[in-house]
Amino acid sequence: MRKVQHNRDYGSRHVRIRLIGVVVLTGWLLAGATCTQATIGVTGADLRPGDEAVVIVQGRAPAAESVSDTAFVDCVNKNLAKALPRPLAVYKTKAFLDSMFPWFEPGYAPRTTEELQALLARPEVSRQIQSLHVRFIVTIAGGTESNTFPGMLCSYGCFGLYASHHISRIAAVVLDVKSRAPAQEVKVESGGHTIIPAFILPIPLSIALTESKACDDVSHRIERFLIEHAHSESQ
Amino acid sequence: MKAFVALALSAFSLAACHYVVPIRSPITQPPIASPIRGMIDVFYPAEFQTYHCKTGKGYIFDTFRFDLGAQSVTMFDSILEGVFEHIEHVDRDPDFAGRSRPHPAITLRLVQFTGCEAKWPIVGTTAIDIEYDANIYTRTGKAIAQITARGHADAFDIPTGASADESQYLGRLTGAAMRKAAASFVADFQRREEIRETLNAESSTQP
């Protein structure tokens, strides 16, 4: 009996020592495995000689709307970079903003021909715009409004219904640096519903991708305008 | 049981990581500006140059350290090289008390930085505010202007497809807030003609 007790004590101490070992070892392994130091890369411009650059920048968004500006500008940038024929070429927004700092930062970019002219009246700005071969400046503003019915409760599982109606309203203004023609405005509105009923697990029946649709619509309309405008100028 | 909990906690603390947030000066070249003639002395106080902070209790075990001072100096050096024809670093506060100096001067101060208040979950929810103050003095030590430069950055300032790594996310947010502060500084400075006129007049009479 005593021997058994002794064995049990020995056993529990042995388990404890092993447990300590496992816990400490796990800690060290976790520390070694997960501590990585991040760095940030830099992107550049991609423009060939003879190209006329199109730049897409963030405009001034109306207040009180949720705005995913950077993501939206990135989306329009990618669509236009794929769609526009030479000699029109999209100048990467980040590279352009760096080259023109701070005059095209969000909140400072011109939205009207008059504002553009006032900005180009600064000789240093005008020189830099010319050296970058910028022909069109597109400023984009807007955002997404959501009306939500938050009828879902989650604790040990989720129950109820989450429903939301989204409307994305985007306004793009196209400014022609070369002709200084009046600014052209492109407005796009896109709506949709997100419906997620839940019985233990949420089941997404419908997810509204209004910003994605608005991005495609606005990109397509800007593309059409730029091609027509560049074409009519060359005739 | 208590011993186990203590051990588990110590194991977790061993597992906790200490990160240096990768902050890069958001200005890669001097701004497009019409520079003010002559030389200006630039004074960065020691607390500005060496400013750093760590996230506190809000983030369970990992620690994020922001070495903001060095990057703020790099950023303002770039800005001031675009805004003034020549700059010279000085190591004494231009607290003149009647003494005249060869050049006008500018001093920088960090008023607010909220990066170290970041709480879990960091990615997607953290916002960072930053505020700098710049004081400008004539050669005789008269304060002629104070320019406040503020920047705010949140999830909407992070590009799509950016890494979800927490330290990188904090670095990008800090950079975005600094960039907005820099933009407001340059734009404000360019618009305030009275400061430019005073400094241009000072430079025309520099010894």
In the CATH hierarchy, the third-tier topology of chain B is known as Rossmann fold
| Total E-strand runs of chain A | 5
Structural class of chain B: alpha/beta
- So what's the CATH class of the domain at 52-144 and 170-188 and 210-234 in chain A? Alpha Beta
Biggest interface: A-B, 40 and 44 residues
How many runs of DSSP E, i.e. beta strands of chain B? 8
**Averaging pLDDT over every residue of chain A, what do you get?**
74
Query: What coarse outline of chain B follows from CA principal-axis ratios?
Result: elongated
Could you spell the SSE succession of chain B in H and E letters? HEEHEEHEEEEHH
Strand content of chain A: 25-35%
Give a structural overview.
The complex is a heterodimer of chains A (235) and B (207). Chain A is α/β, with parallel strands linked by helices and 235 residues long. Chain A has a domain at 52-144 and 170-188 and 210-234: Rossmann fold (3-Layer(aba) Sandwich). Chain A is built from six helices and five strands. A five-stranded mixed beta sheet of chain A has the order 2-1-3-4-5. In chain A, strand 1 (52-58), helix 2 and strand 2 form a beta-alpha-beta unit. In chain A, helix 2 (69-83) packs across helix 6 (210-234). Chain A is elongated. By secondary structure, chain B is an alpha/beta fold. Chain B has one domain (17-26, 35-204): Rossmann fold. Chain B has five helices and eight strands. In chain B, helix 3 packs parallel to helix 4 (166-191). The longest helix of chain B is centred in the C-terminal third of the chain and has 26 residues, at 166-191. In chain B, 36% of the residues are buried. Chains A and B meet through helix 1, helix 2 and helix 5 of A and helix 1, strand 1 and helix 4 of B.
